[in-house]
Write a structure and sequence with these properties.
Elements: H1 3-9, E1 11-15, E2 24-28, E3 35-44, E4 48-54, E5 57-62, E6 65-68, H2 75-81, E7 94-99, E8 103-109, E9 114-118, E10 122-136, H3 139-147, E11 152-154, H4 159-177, H5 188-207, E12 209-220, H6 223-238, H7 241-254, H8 259-279, E13 300-301, H9 303-310, H10 314-322, E14 329-331, E15 334-338, H11 339-346
Parallel strand pairs: 1-3
Antiparallel strand pairs: 2-7, 2-11, 3-6, 4-5, 4-7, 8-10, 9-10, 10-12, 13-15, 14-15
Helix pairs in contact: 4-5, 7-8, 8-10, 9-10
Length: 348
């Protein structure tokens, strides 16, 4: 091997990076302690940027294309190396390639509930998750704040930091959008667009990144809030309470003579009696035919009187008394029931 071949082997003539992965954010060109030849070719492909670093200071940045490394196109590096007469000999510098393509489908989510104010629920804890797309827009800041001198910086090394940063502004964005929690499901797109102006200034200034799109896939509230909403929805679905009571009476009768069935029949009987009085215009001043007026019912009742008022059999009343569900006083062989005890039982 001649001296020229040896010297040629110690110089880098072509600098390029062929990315064969889908998750590499930055890549430091391996120079094997070799110097870069004067006039070497730098090849930067589409969706790439090349950043020169000399002794820890940022030099020149190159976009896509084929570049010949001479004094004219590396002015910053020329100044840093203090070349008085320009680039005349091989030199050493670190070259970082950055992937500027769009990284899609990255997941985010709230590890812990986020506190926010809602017009319907007041202060509520919500969880959310979705996806986002981002790209590198400031190579120097990204290298300085994120990748550092890492030889091969990949997406999974930065995922947790990005997730926590996005979640930290999620509550503010949701409040700014003024979208009620129960309407979020139909307005995910609007919520995602509202998040972008709040997230991008932070991640660009901190990491040199830009969020291209932000997708909210789900927003949920704690189980106890969901249960309260379900109960409210159920009440709305019942609609006419009298119709619902009649339906419950029919189902109670289908159960036969069980204690639960008797209790249902008694409650339903009282409700129907009240409804009949209202429909006939009698109100509280008159009772249904064959039954005493509400104001005429004495404070102390026997099983037969209770059965007559509710429209059930006397045996049904005794069954409920013996089960302990209706408070009564046994005097000899008979039971006496206070009007207040009957009202309390029916209110259960």
């Amino acid at each position: 091997m001649g001296i020229m071949d040896f010297l040629k082997g110690e110089l880098i003539e072509i600098i390029e990076w062929t990315d064969d992965s889908r998750d590499t954010l930055s890549y430091r060109f391996p120079d094997d302690d070799k110097a870069i030849k004067n006039g070497a070719q730098l090849i930067v492909r589409e969706s790439q940027q090349a950043q020169f670093v000399y002794l820890g200071e940022f030099g020149d940045t190159f976009g896509p294309g084929k570049h010949t490394l001479v004094t004219d196109n590396i002015p910053i590096l020329t100044r840093l190396k203090s070349w008085k007469f320009g680039l005349q000999s091989p030199f050493k510098a670190d070259v970082y390639f950055l992937n500027t393509r769009l990284f899609t489908g990255n997941k985010w989510g709230t590890a812990n509930p986020v506190m926010m104010r809602d017009a319907d629920l007041g202060v509520v804890r919500v969880r959310a998750f979705g996806t986002y797309d981002f790209r590198i827009v400031d190579t120097k800041r990204f290298l300085k704040e994120v990748a550092g001198s890492d030889h091969n910086f990949r997406l999974d090394e930065f995922a947790e930091t990005m997730r926590s940063r996005i979640v930290s502004v999620f509550g503010d964005a949701l409040s700014s959008a003024q979208v009620p929690v129960f309407d979020v499901a139909s307005r995910y797109t609007e919520l995602g667009e509202a998040l972008l102006p709040l997230i991008n200034p932070v991640v660009t200034a901190k990491y040199g990144l830009e969020i291209a799109s932000f997708v909210v896939e789900n927003v949920s509230v704690p189980p106890e809030v969901e249960q309260a909403v379900d109960k409210r929805s159920s009440m709305a679905a019942v609609g006419n309470l009298n119709d619902y009571v009649k339906f419950q009476m029919a189902q109670g009768m289908a159960k036969g003579g069980s204690t639960g069935g008797m209790a249902t029949e008694m409650a339903v009987g009282l409700s129907i009696a009240q409804q009949m009085m209202q429909q006939q215009g009698l109100g509280a001043k008159a009772a249904a035919p064959g039954a005493p007026a509400a104001s005429a019912i004495p404070d102390l009742l026997g099983p037969a009187e209770v059965a007559h008022v509710l429209g059930v059999t006397e045996q049904d009343v005794i069954t409920v008394i013996e089960s302990g569900e209706l408070a009564a006083k046994r005097i000899g062989a008979s039971y006496r029931i206070k009007r207040s005890a009957l009202d309390e039982y029916l209110a259960k």
